[in-house]
From TrEMBL:
GO terms for cellular component: plasma membrane. It comes from the Bacteria. It holds the Pfam family YajC. It comes from Fulvimonas soli. One of its GO terms (biological process) is protein transport. This is Sec translocon accessory complex subunit YajC. The chain crosses the membrane at residues 26-43. Keywords: Cell membrane, Membrane, Protein transport, Translocation, Transmembrane, Transmembrane helix, Transport. Belongs to the YajC family. It is found in: Cell membrane. Signal peptide: none annotated. It is a single-pass membrane protein. InterPro entries: Preprotein_translocase_YajC (IPR003849).
Amino acid sequence: MSLPTSFLTIAQAAPAAGAPGNPLVTFLPLIVLFGLMYFMMIRPQMKRQKELRAMVAALSKGDEVVTNGGLAGRVDEVGESFITVEIAPNVKVKVQKGAVSQVLPKGTLKSA
């Protein structure tokens, strides 16, 4: 049984299966995907954490803050890892420094 000549020319022209390619081209999509994830997810999150640490370190008596739980008040005392927040006249609560979500501009609580 003889094979047609067109089949033989196609078989000779096809590259060998399993020929190794350039490793850089193989991993390029993964490298690009990691780069995109870094600039779109990891880097902004690190920036927010850095800003939050700086804000918590700069807390002082008299600052008006809002906690993660939604309590708004004025800082009465600053300790090593806790702060005392006055949420109403003669009502003070002790919260962790990390629970502070934002520092309000002065006078915000009086207008609320």
